Amino acid sequence: MTLSITSLANPTRFLSFAGKVIPWLAALVVILLGAGLYLSFFVAPPDYQQGETVRIMFIHVPAAWLGMFGYMVIALSALGTLIWRHPLADVSAKAAAPIGATFTFLALVTGSLWGKPMWGTYWVWDARLTSMLVLFLLYLGLIALWQAIEEPGRAGRAAAILALVGAINIPIIKFSVDWWNTLHQPASVFRSGGPSIDPALLTPLFVMAAAFTVLFVLLHLMAMRAEILRRRVHALQQSRVAHAALAEA
Amino acid sequence: MTAAIALLARDVSLAWREGGAIGVALGFYLMVIAIAPFGLGPDLNLLSRTAPGLLWVALLLAALLSADRIFHNDYEDGTLDVLATGPLPLPIVAASKSLAHWITTCVPLALLAPVLGLLLNLSIETIPLLVLAMLAGTPAVSFIAGIGASLTLGLRRSGLLLALLVLPLYVPVLIFGVSTVSAAITGPGSPWPPLMMLCAISLASMILAPLAAAAALRLNLR
């Protein structure tokens, strides 16, 4: 059996594929995350300027990357829903939204925890922080739209339209927020570029990024499997209600 | 083209004769600006510095109050089904309804803004620029609201959901709108570049938003 996006359109085939892949991915996450956390917290030297707080970066930066990656997954799935009518595309988008939102939230929280010792305050309206906050709000809007529409097919297509509108808007928002910040904030407060990153810090960062990426894929597959099964249960319940109604009549 | 204009004229005159919605939006706008000083304190310097931002934020909220009505009445009584099966392309229908929202809601709000600006001690010289910026930026507000209205058509609590979906998309409009006015008050820089950006955002949303709104309408009319 050749595996491709088309052959995985069959939910049953997807479920068996996911069932086979998930244990391996889970093992890989445990190894990478273990290694990454060990490297970040015990091996990496403290930064000469930021001290021990630099370790927050090993969580923060990969989380921010995956927050953005999650929206990319949703936007691509939205294209899959609207153009190719791929039956699992809206399942994929729906499954990716809470995961991406969580990573974005994690990036915001770790960012503000890092900001307290570095900037002296938990929150500054820095251009990057603000863009991530808007991204988080876009995620919330998408999730709310899914919650509001009951029929899964319709909800998926509506969310796909919204996701694409958001995807077109994100670069514009990013650009305008950069403009806004440079207009109001002197650039000297924030390190522009900062000290170039030493390989001793870069290695744990990349291991953590790999660990988070595999974790995203793992959670995404699990959430997709759960969503497919949830829809099957829902369909079974409905048909049982219909049978019961017929039997009474 | 004549059909689109006829549709626009119908929507505008319907909104005008109903009357209520425009009055509520204007009243809401006045109310938000009138209670802001109670929160910020009566310091006139502070008020005049925050005036552009307050006026813009309150305008966005007031414009969203009536946004879920853009398609709602025509959806309820079946007019939208007729329009969808008619010869007029659905994006044109969506565009003309969004434009009607702009004419009946955003333009009156933008024209009320100078009066409210006086309450906030906004200097008289910047008022023409404020109105210009609002007239340039609010088409984007109405057309993006059109996307939200078509996505939430027929849902419970659609107005609240609409605000949640659409407000993050207004960040660029807000930033360039406020920059235009505050550049004229305090600097730095000239008010024209952000005003040009505002025009660009409005023009782009007038072209792109009706396509998205039409896709969402088709989905909800099935």
Layout of secondary structure:
The complex is a heterodimer of chains A (249) and B (222).
Chain A: H1 11-43, H2 55-84, H3 89-119, H4 127-148, H5 152-184, H6 199-248
Helix pairs in contact in A: 1-6, 2-3, 2-4, 2-5, 2-6, 3-4, 3-5, 3-6, 4-5
Chain B: H1 2-18, H2 20-40, H3 44-65, H4 72-76, H5 79-85, H6 90-119, H7 127-151, H8 158-166, H9 171-185, H10 192-221
Helix pairs in contact in B: 1-6, 2-3, 2-6, 3-6, 3-7, 3-9, 6-7, 6-10, 7-8, 7-9, 7-10, 9-10
Describe this structure in words.
The complex is a heterodimer of chains A (249) and B (222). Chain A has one domain. Chain A has 249 residues and is an all-alpha fold. Chain A has six helices and no strands. The longest helix of chain A has 50 residues. Chain A is globular and about 75 Å long. Helices cover 80% and strands 0% of the residues of chain A. Chain B has one domain. The radius of gyration of chain B is 18 Å and the shape is elongated. Classes of the chains: A mainly alpha (249), B mainly alpha (222).
**Beta-strand residue fraction of chain A:** under 5%
Q: What is the radius of gyration of chain B?
A: 18 Å
Distance between the termini of chain A: 47 Å
**Radius of gyration of chain A, in angstroms, nearest whole number:** 21 Å
- Low-pLDDT windows of residues of chain A: 185-192
Unreliable segments of 5+ consecutive residues of chain B: none
Q: How would a textbook summarize the main sheet of chain A?
A: none
Helix fraction of chain A, binned, reads over 70%
